[in-house]
Specification:
The structure holds two protein chains of two kinds. In chain A, 35% of the residues lie in helices and 14% in strands. By secondary structure, chain A is an alpha/beta fold. Chain A has an eight-stranded mixed beta sheet, sandwiched between helices. Chain B has an eight-stranded mixed beta sheet, with helices on both faces. The N and C termini of chain B lie far apart (66 Å). By secondary structure, chain B is α/β, with parallel strands linked by helices. The chains are: A alpha/beta, B alpha/beta.
């Protein structure tokens, strides 16, 4: 079993007040990282920090605000003494638009445009604003990580699942492109997903899932700790499934079992006329 | 005006809205529709270019063949008004072509030679592009769908981009905006199953020779796709011959006009989005 010592790594996790973000924030703090637990709800971030006991500092931030995102990155660097890893986990799910969407199907013509926009703003704009605010510092220190939490590839295109699915498709595509943009900088960009519906507040408790069969948020912990460590140097434009990551196995085995290129490079072979094809991801080696 | 393929489908009685109809791919599709007998609402944020294309159609096919609509598709009430005007003035509505989009020129004039990195553009530019490309496509589709469902026949076609362009460095936020539309098109097709309304994707199949590529770009314009590669597939999609074809993505430059349309569609088509990806299974334990 790989144990990570993340001492000295300073990580920002958005959506740290609940669900996957909370699990990752706690896991990173447990592994010795200094964590900025970011949430729009400061009380929720505080409660995660209390649960950690040490290494976890709550920050309130509306990630759809340019001022808030720039301010939060600056505050983290000033207050925690540096910054290395951004985990874009904050997201709004379909239950924000219709509480019982799993029973009462939400077709796209019934989605209220204001709620549609609110979800897109958090899930797509928010990740972009955090990424752009974070990247200067990471490039300057020639080491950094951006990890974007998206969703299963089929969830992105399933009926009754918009705009959540399309918001995650946009973030998946961006992750691959950002990895290209960051080539040779020492900063990587990867995707981490649970690998199925997860046992978080995004799946309402009255929904018909057997909660024990849902992916537990802790499935994100071992892969995020690896991604935050120097052990994942050079791995970029990949997507990892928490469910398939076995904390008892070697990193190399886990990269094979849980990793694949981000987005859809295997389908992207019809190269655009006169334009270069994606250089990273398509040819990404599958082992460290 | 040059006569296009005479073997194109008969679209008499069909009414189509083409967003971004004032230029590029939209103009080519609008002219192609009219050539097959459809009436066209040429919608553009730029009133002048919408009127130019509508006038071009009217001169060739008569006063009732087209209208021009000046509309910002990022605005819900403007979308609703444009759809109602089409129904009132052209006597119905059968197809929406979601073609309008802001391209990478808006992010950087030199994007083909110096691809802009994602931290080099402002949030305002990001948002303006996403609002037109993603929100606009959603709002227009919402605005047409009830009319189409009520008449139990309709078409929504989304123009996206090549799958590699969606995820290529130096191509955000355009690429991610198109990934979002692609995903939505696949999902909307499922929402509309059994209604008689289909949703498909049509792309040229590579960069096209439109104003989205600036004149000073070092790209070889002769190698770019001509906007006319969209015409045969979009006219087939507008016709009754494509009834029941939904959740597909078609590549214009792969469409062979010498083949019967059904065969050309088969050769140039595939599942929308990344429906062809093998879905990963749980790790064997």
């Amino acid at each position: 079993m790989a144990t990570r010592d993340l001492n000295g790594k300073i990580c920002i996790v958005t959506g740290a007040g609940s669900g996957l973000g909370k699990a990752m924030a706690l896991g990173l703090a447990e592994a010795g990282a200094t964590v900025a637990g970011v949430d729009i709800n400061l009380d929720a971030a505080r409660s995660t920090a209390d649960e950690a006991g040490k290494n976890l500092n709550p920050f309130a931030c509306d990630i759809t605000s340019v001022e808030d995102t720039e301010g939060t990155i600056k505050s983290v660097i000033d207050q925690l003494g540096g910054f290395h890893v951004l985990v874009n986990c904050a997201g709004l799910g379909m239950s924000m638009i219709r509480r019982d969407y799993w029973r009462n199907r939400l077709n796209f013509w019934d989605v209220e445009p204001d709620l549609w926009q609110k979800l897109m703003d958090v899930n797509v704009r928010g990740a972009f604003l955090m990424g752009r605010a974070a990247v200067g510092h990471l490039i300057d220190q020639k080491w950094g990580r951006i990890v974007n939490v998206t969703t299963s590839m089929n969830t992105m295109i399933r009926g009754g699942n918009m705009p959540y699915g399309q918001s995650k498709a946009a973030l998946e595509a961006a992750s691959s492109a950002w990895a290209d943009d960051l080539a040779e900088t020492g900063v990587t960009c990867n995707v981490l997903v649970p690998g199925g519906a997860a046992d978080t507040p995004m799946v309402p408790h009255e929904s018909p899932y057997n909660r024990e069969e849902l992916v537990q948020p802790d499935a994100m912990v071992a892969p995020i700790c690896w991604l935050a460590s120097n052990d994942s140097d050079g791995i970029t434009s990949m997507r990892f499934l928490g469910r398939n990551w076995n904390p008892e196995a070697s990193d190399e085995d886990n990269i094979q079992a849980a990793g694949s290129p981000a987005a859809w490079p295997s389908l992207a072979d019809q190269a655009a006329v006169g334009q270069p094809t994606t250089s990273i991801g398509k040819n990404m080696p599958r082992t460290a | 005006m040059a006569k296009t393929d005479r073997s194109g489908p008969n679209l008499q009685g069909k009414v189509v809205i083409v967003t971004g109809g004032g230029g590029g791919l939209g103009r080519a599709m609008a002219l192609g529709f009219a050539e097959c007998g459809a009436r066209v609402a040429v919608l553009d944020i730029d009133r002048g270019s919408a009127e130019d294309v509508a006038n071009e159609v009217k001169q060739a096919h008569g006063e009732n063949a087209a209208i021009a609509l000046a509309c910002s598709i990022a605005n819900q009430s403007e979308c609703r008004i444009a759809v109602q005007r089409t129904i009132d003035e052209l006597g119905g509505l059968h197809m929406l072509v979601n073609n309008a989009a802001i391209g990478m020129r808006f992010i950087s004039e030199d994007f083909t030679d110096i691809p802009p990195k994602f931290w080099e553009y402002t949030p305002d530019r990001f948002q303006a592009l996403m609002d037109v490309n993603v929100t606009g496509t959603f709002l227009m589709s919402q605005a047409v769908v009830h009319h189409m469902m009520d008449q139990r026949w309709g078409r929504i076609v989304c123009v996206t981009t090549s799958l590699d362009s969606m995820m290529r460095g130096g191509n955000m936020p355009y690429g991610q905006s198109k990934a979002a539309i692609e995903a939505a098109a696949a999902s909307w097709a499922e929402d509309l199953e059994g209604t008689g309304v289909t949703v498909n994707v049509l792309i040229p199949g590579g960069a096209a020779d439109t104003q989205m590529i600036p004149a000073h770009s070092s790209l070889d314009r002769d190698r770019l796709n001509k906007p006319e590669v969209m015409v045969a597939p979009i006219c087939w999609l507008a016709s009754d011959a494509s009834d029941g074809v939904t959740r597909r993505r078609f590549i214009g430059c792969d469409w062979d006009p010498s083949l019967p349309a059904a065969e050309a569609a088969e050769a140039a088509g595939g599942p929308a989005a990344w429906g062809a990806l093998p879905m990963r299974r749980k790790r064997a334990t």
